Amino acid sequence: DKIKKSIQQYEYKIKDLRFLFMRRPEFIELFPIDLDKVNTIDAAILLAFGSDYFLDKIDFSKHTFNFRESMNIIQGYKYDRSIIEKVNYKSLKGYQVSEILIQTGERDVDLLDISTLNNIDWINLLEVRPEMIKYCDYSKFMSGDIFYSIKLCCMFDSPDLSHLVLERGVTNISPLGWEMLLIKKPEIFLAH
Fold it and tell me: 66: helix, coil or strand?
């Protein structure tokens, strides 16, 4: 009780105490902090710890988290779908959507906007989750660096994705790209 009185004579901010609350979330009760009135930045800091302690005490509906805050919270709660649904998941960038899908597979395809994934995001996802190829937007590989089209083409025997390279023209292929294509798909690319 003496400690609590001593603590309460100072105006601590959540960002100053975040390491304490990360280890012992219940210690927040020692400080004059009203979780109903915390701002969005402080709510994001606390929720990013992934502690069940804060789930019932912070009202998600009072906060609009930005894409970074949302992702930190999602990671803190280990990609739990119910948490994804509570944060501003529509603000997530393609690389974040890719990371979530790497962790959850097809479970969240209906929830997340996979149209935000660019060719690099798709490659990163498909390297870990090849079963996600059925959702891939191949048009993302028809522009940008042809190397990503080559990489995708070489990742899969089925479906045959050689058209992603051939339709773009073989004159832009680097020596490394040719090496990859000739090793993985010689029957298609030796003729060019």
Answer: coil
Find the Cα–Cα–Cα–Cα dihedral 126, 132, 136, 142, rounded to 10°: 20
Give the position of tokens 């590989």: 141
DSSP letter for each residue of 129-192: -GGGGGG--GGGGSSS-HHHHHHHHHH-SSS--THHHHTT-GGG--HHHHHHHHHH-HHHHTT-
% of residues, the chain, pLDDT over 70: 97
35-67 pLDDT, tens digit each: 999 999 999 999 999 999 999 899 999 999 999
* End-to-end Cα spacing for the chain: 81
pTM: 0.88
pLDDT-based confidence at residue 169 (cuts at 50, 70, 90): confident
166: exposed, middle or buried (C-beta count within 10 Å: 0-12, 13-18, 19+)?
middle
Distance CA 135, CA 73 (A): 26
CB contact set of 131 (below 8 Å; sequence gap of 6+):
105, 106
